[in-house]
Amino acid sequence: MTTTPVIVTGGAGFIGSHACKCLAEAGYLPVTIDNLRTGHADAVRWGPLEKLDVRDTDAVAHVFRRHSARTVIHFAACAYVGESVEQPGLYYDNNVGGMISLLSAMKREGVGQIVFSSSCATYGIPNTVPISETSQQAPINPYGRTKLICEMMIRDHAAAHGLRYAMLRYFNAAGAAPDGALSERHDPETHLIPLALMAASGMGPPLRVFGGDYPTPDGTCIRDYIHVSDLAEAHLLALRHLEAGRDDLVLNLGTGRGTSIHELLQAIARQTGCDVPYELAPRRPGDPAELVAAPELAERVLNFRARRSDIDSIIKDAAPHFAKENCHGVDA
Question: Is-catalytic flag, 123?
Answer without folding.
Answer: no
